[in-house]
Design brief:
By secondary structure, the protein is α+β, with helices and mostly antiparallel strands. The chain contains 13 helices and twelve strands. The chain folds into three domains: 90 residues; 61 residues, 2-Layer Sandwich (Dna Ligase, domain 1), CATH 3.30.1490.20; 148 residues, ATP-grasp fold, B domain (D-amino Acid Aminotransferase, Chain A, domain 1), CATH 3.30.470. Helix 2 packs antiparallel against helix 3.
Length: 329
């Protein structure tokens, strides 16, 4: 967020203590609360006290759970929250089963998905032929790919022992590649947008009007505000299936800035739409090698890679945490 032009003060706990050493962190305050999705008046009071002390003008959540905590008490805060969904919208979109059903109702393609009450039902479904291996099993609301498993004939017995949650989703596996898209919305209108993919160690942005149109439908139907990231699979024929929505800030924020897409500014600048409206196909295309690729294949390094590396290493703590998918609370 500092790279997007915002002075950052962090209110966190044990998981986010390392951020105090970040060059982008102006101050760090140890919280007496764990921002785990729950909220109460005392949590709001603590946030208000810290905001008054550091002179904060807006409050941002750091991850999925802290987003839920913040959206639950935003009406009790003395400082505005960065735009985001209502608590009901957050719970709805963060639930992978609810999201898939919503997409299907609005003719947005998703892999065939079944809701199971417990893992013992998986083998019954496979035996009946409702779905066939390989399949994806995932929890309803965990983030950062936690709990997501690809079940194959070779791994089925072993992987069933790793499933420690219920209920769960069993989803058709789409042969192809992972892609994603991020959007900032205001009153159901997309103001900033980026489609992205990771291919052989390289992140890149790309344009796709069908993805933009599908997310526009979701944003408009729900009248969304704030930042949202969508996970998708593109099959071998180029057909796109939506998997889930993450109604929060996302790990690929540095990529978006390198690509020239600022997802923070439209939430704090009411005039953003007049200066830089986002239209289908407007997204800039940039490609950056992931950090391990820079080390393993230095002969492929370009000036753009060197510039990107300097950008990341200017504040390595945040970058390392994002690479490790470490939550901020």
């Amino acid at each position: 967020m500092a790279a997007a032009g915002v002075e950052v003060h962090v209110l966190g706990n044990e998981m986010s203590r390392g951020l105090r050493f970040s060059r982008s962190c102006s101050s760090f305050t140890e919280s007496t609360y764990t921002f785990d999705g729950h909220f109460d008046d005392a949590m709001a009071d603590e946030i208000n006290e810290v905001c008054a002390r550091v002179g904060a003008e807006v409050v941002f959540p750091g991850c999925a759970l802290s987003s839920r905590s913040l959206y639950g008490i935003k009406d009790r805060l003395t400082v505005p929250c960065f735009p985001g969904p209502t608590l009901d919208q957050f719970d709805f979109l963060n639930n992978k089963w609810e999201f898939v059903q919503f997409c299907q109702q609005h003719e947005i393609a998703c892999p065939r998905t079944l809701l199971l009450t417990e893992k013992s039902e998986i083998q019954t479904v496979l035996a009946e032929g409702s779905l066939s291996l390989p399949v994806i099993v995932k929890p309803l609301a965990m983030d950062g790919e936690r709990g997501v498993l690809k079940l194959t004939k070779a791994s089925l017995e072993a992987d069933l022992g790793h499933i420690d949650y219920a209920p769960l989703l069993l989803q058709e596996f789409v042969q192809g590649d992972d892609i994603g898209a991020s959007a900032f919305c205001r009153s159901g209108e997309i103001l900033a947008f980026m489609s992205h993919r990771l291919d052989r160690g390289e992140y890149s942005t790309f344009t796709n009007e069908k993805i933009h149109a599908a997310i526009s439908t979701i944003a408009r139907e729900l009248s969304l505000n704030g930042v949202y990231n969508f996970d998708m699979r593109r099959d071998l024929n180029g057909f796109i299936y939506f998997l889930e929505c993450n109604p929060r800030f996302f790990f690929k924020m540095p990529l978006s800035l390198v690509a020239g897409i600022n997802f923070v500014l439209p939430g704090i600048d009411p005039n953003f739409a007049a200066r830089q409206p986002a239209e289908p196909g407007e997204t800039l295309t940039r490609t950056q090698r992931a950090w391990p690729n820079l080390l393993l294949t230095p002969w492929r390094v370009t000036k753009r890679d060197r510039d990107f590396s300097r950008f990341l290493l200017s504040d390595p703590i945040s970058f390392v945490r994002e690479m490790a998918h470490i939550d901020w609370d």
